[in-house]
Every structure is written in C-alpha cells, then in structure tokens.
C-alpha cells in the first residue's frame, strides 16, 4: 500500500510532529521540565494530537535524526491507529524533507504476513509536509518509490526459505522485468553445464531446484554504451552443506539471498526512477543443502574462468557461486565497474556488527569506493573499507590447485573472502560489499525492522547517480 504524500500545513486528524532542539523553550507549558529536547527524546500530548521530538544539540545534529524521529512518529501513530502524520517545521532543506519521508516510510513497516488480523501492524497512510516543501515534490516522490522497493527486499529476506526458493526468486524477477521493461534471461542447469559453471553447479547439486543465474538488463542511457554490473549472492538457504552449521548459526540462513534480493530491488528502483545509466544485474541463485548429491570438502572444482579451486569448507559456498557469476558477467557484458552484494562472512559481523557493511575494492576502483562511502554517509547505509593488500591476495594461492577457497589460518575471514572474489573479475574495477551483518538484524532499530532490513538499495541508488 503506497503512502500518500501531501503538502499541507493543516494536519487535522493526523498526528502532528514538532521538533525541538536541546535547551530550546518547550513548546507547551504542560510538558514536564525533565523534557529537554535530547536527541530522539519524545513527548506525546494526546489531547492535542501532538508529538514533540528532541533533535539534540544544534551543533551535533545529523540528518539521520530526522529519519529516526520520523520512524518514531510512524510507530506511535500506528500504535494509536492514527491514519496520518504531519510535520510542522519552518526551514526544512530538501535533504531534511527526504530524510523525514524515508524515516516515515521505512518505519511504517512490519513483516506481519503470518500474523492474524488483530496482530497486524497498523499502517499509516498519509504524510503531510509543510506547504513550502512542495518544491521538493519530485525528489520526495522518488524516495518514496525506492522505500517501497526496500519493503519488497525486506519481505524477500524475512520470509521462509520454503517460500523464497530459487523458483520463487525467478518468478519474482520475471514479474519485475515484465512490469518495468527490463530484459531478463535465466541460465538454468543445462546452460550452466554447457558453459562450464562448475562452482555454482557444485554448490547447488544437493538442491531439488536447479541452480540458476538470473540476468536483468536495464538500458537507461541512449548516449553511452558503458555499463555498471551488479551481482548478488542468492543462497535461498545455507545449511553449511556437509560441513553443517551448528543449530544457532543456521537459524537465520533464509537471509542468505539478501544480496540477490538487494540487486533485484536496485534494478526495480533504477527502472522506476528512469536513471540515465545502463545497468546489468546478475543474481547467483541456489540452495546449499545436504544429501547424497552434496558436494564435498576438499573437492577441486574447475571454475567457469578456467581456474581450479580447492574448496576447504562446503559452508564457504557464497564465494563459489559468486566467482562463476562474476567472471561470466565480466566476460559477457564488459562492464566499466562491478559492484557485488553478499552475506559472505560471519567474520564481517564480528567486525562491524549491524551498523556498517564491509567494503572491499580493487586498486583501480578507488574513485568508486570514495563515491560509495559518500553515498553511505548520505543514506546512512554506511560502508567502511577494509584492505586488500597483496599479502591477502597471495593467501588465495592453492597447493593442489590454482586457488584455495579458505585461508590457511582462521583469521581475517572477511578479507580472505573478498580477496578470493577479486580473482574472478579480471582487471575491472570491482567493489564487494559484505552485508552479512546489516541485511538482517535481531532487534529493530528506529527505521530498521527486526529481520530483513533492505540494506543496500538506497545506498546503491545514491551511488549509481554519482557514477
Ligand atoms: N552465509 C554465511 C555467512 C553469514 C554468517 C551470513 C552469518 C550471515 C550471518 C556464509 O556462507 C558462511 O557460512 N561463511 C563462513 C565462511 C567460512 C566457512 C570460511 C563463515 O563466515 O563462517
Ligand atoms: Zn555458508
Ligand atoms: Zn552463505
């Protein structure tokens, strides 16, 4: 259900939000002295229908506080079953207005499809920005479209692995392609075999559904032949394979297709916004299951690129499916840049927790990494770079084979995984974003729900505008 965005100073019948900086005069006498306007402190006056939200000290202000504040307002309105939220503020910049709309939309969400009616989240339908903000109309509508796609990604990541299967992801991608005039091709088992994509085939060989690479093409620029290639890890369920995961580590492994879902959300958003870029998105889709057909530890497998890989752990499946997909896409589409999203390693969760995604990139991608970092700060889907020094790249050399899939020590796991991937992109600028810690979270934050977060869609759209 789409949110209606109004430009009106009349918030009759809606929850009306007012902001207050720390130390400013409280707008209502009935407010207690203890309310000082600290960041994201809230005070609700039900008889007036007004919610006052603190923004902290003026000097410490960040635009993200608007996102978080708006999400708090959406949640409060929802809990009182108020159908709309109006914002009263005299000097919102375009970025402030965008942040407020993002916060409202992203906060106005819950994965509740399995809840009975009285357990469902009440969704707010309307948001009113001040009349003078009408000049931001276009950018605000654009942001609303992207947020709707973030919801789609969240749904895909949060739902059961027996719902979001390879077949389901393909169906979803086909429906999106049809509606948005994206070109779609899907490589199934037979085609993957013909092409020699033995890594993705090995990972998927215990699954009843064929592994597949879903390719979506968006042609937004007539004047340029340059393409950006996006790649996403789409493991619909990761048991670990024969190197089976312990129970607790397996619990959330329905989310291991978040990279693929993110790329789907980005492609849909790019098409809906009419970005003037050419973008190709590849989803590397399968399941990492167990059974008599399952691939085994220490198998040596020949990749599509021709290199052989000794695979030391069947739970390191992500890098394998990505390796074939990256080198196939690089060869077929000759992109100027490759950006890849994956829930690749537990190691990145240990490093950054759920606040920041790990970014890695080749030396020739320096300018793009800087733009990705900036897009991260702007959208607050933040990335932080970790190094790919040559010592790390050298660790990928195999003993019995060209490459090994795991390092010889149990250290620097996220960096090793990234180093391995760079072996499959030739000399093209390449950025890998490890979203294992950010794609799904255990506890809701203001505008991020528990479970699938949709992290990466807003980031990538902002990034794509810059390149
Ligand atoms: N899907 C996991 C990574 C993961 C861990 C995602 C936690 C989200 C949360 C990946 O396939 C995996 O199992 N990685 C292993 C690699 C190891 C075997 C080299 C890991 O990180 O432990
Ligand atoms: Zn795994
Ligand atoms: Zn995995």
Automatic annotation (TrEMBL):
Residues covered by the Peptidase M17 leucyl aminopeptidase N-terminal domain: 36-117
Highest rank taxon of the organism: Archaea
Gene Ontology BP annotations: proteolysis
Cytosol aminopeptidase domain: residues covered: 152-459
CDD domains, A to Z: Peptidase_M17 (cd00433)
TM spans (from-to): none
Gene Ontology terms for molecular function: manganese ion binding; metalloaminopeptidase activity
Protein keywords: Aminopeptidase, Hydrolase, Protease
GO cellular component entries: cytoplasm
Family as reported in the entry's similarity comment: Belongs to the peptidase M17 family.
PANTHER family documented for this protein: CYTOSOL AMINOPEPTIDASE, LEUCINE AMINOPEPTIDASE-RELATED
Protein name according to UniProt: Leucyl aminopeptidase
């Amino acid at each position: 259900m789409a949110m209606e965005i109004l430009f009106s100073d009349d918030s009759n019948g809606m929850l009306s939000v007012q902001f207050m900086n720390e130390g400013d005069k409280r707008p209502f006498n009935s407010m207690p002295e203890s309310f000082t306007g600290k960041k994201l402190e809230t005070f609700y006056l039900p008889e007036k229908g007004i919610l006052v939200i603190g923004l902290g000290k003026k000097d410490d202000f960040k635009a993200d506080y608007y996102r978080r504040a708006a999400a708090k307002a959406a949640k409060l309105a929802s809990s009182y079953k108020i159908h709309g939220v109006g914002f009263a503020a005299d000097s919102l910049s375009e970025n402030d207005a965008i942040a407020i709309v993002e916060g409202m939309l992203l906060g106005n969400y819950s994965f509740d499809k399995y809840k009975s009616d009285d357990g469902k989240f009440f969704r707010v339908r309307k948001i009113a920005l001040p009349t003078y903000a009408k000049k931001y109309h276009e950018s605000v509508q654009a942001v609303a479209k992207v947020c709707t796609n973030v919801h789609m990604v969240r749904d895909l990541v949060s739902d059961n692995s027996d719902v979001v299967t390879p077949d389901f992801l393909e169906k979803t991608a086909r429906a999106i392609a049809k509606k948005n005039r994206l070109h779609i091709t899907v490589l199934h088992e037979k085609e993957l075999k013909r092409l020699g994509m033995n890594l993705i085939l090995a990972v998927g060989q215990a699954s009843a559904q064929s592994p597949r690479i879903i390719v979506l093409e968006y042609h937004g620029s007539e004047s340029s032949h340059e393409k950006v290639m996006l790649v996403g890890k789409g493991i619909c369920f990761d048991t670990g394979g024969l190197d089976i995961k312990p129970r607790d580590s397996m619990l959330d492994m329905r989310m291991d297709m978040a990279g693929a879902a993110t790329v789907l959300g980005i492609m849909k958003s790019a098409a809906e916004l009419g970005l003037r870029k050419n973008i190709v998105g590849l989803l590397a889709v399968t399941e990492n299951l167990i059974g008599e057909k399952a691939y085994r530890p220490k198998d040596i497998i020949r990749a599509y690129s021709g290199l052989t890989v000794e695979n030391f752990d069947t739970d390191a499946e992500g890098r394998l499916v990505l390796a074939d997909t990256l080198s196939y896409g690089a060869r077929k589409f000759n992109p100027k840049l490759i950006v890849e999203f994956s829930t690749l390693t537990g190691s990145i969760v240990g490093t950054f927790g759920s606040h920041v995604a790990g970014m890695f990139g080749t030396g020739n991608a320096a300018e793009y990494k800087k733009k990705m970092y900036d897009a991260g700060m702007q959208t607050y889907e933040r990335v932080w770079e970790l190094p790919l020094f040559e010592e790390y790249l050298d660790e990928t050399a195999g003993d019995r084979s060209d490459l090994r899939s795991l390092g010889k020590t149990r250290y620097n796991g996220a960096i090793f995984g990234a180093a391995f991937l760079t072996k499959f992109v030739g000399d093209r600028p390449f950025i890998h974003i490890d979203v294992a810690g950010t794609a799904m979270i255990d506890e809701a934050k203001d505008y991020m729900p528990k479970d699938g977060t949709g992290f990466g869609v807003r980031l990538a759209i902002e990034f794509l505008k810059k390149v």
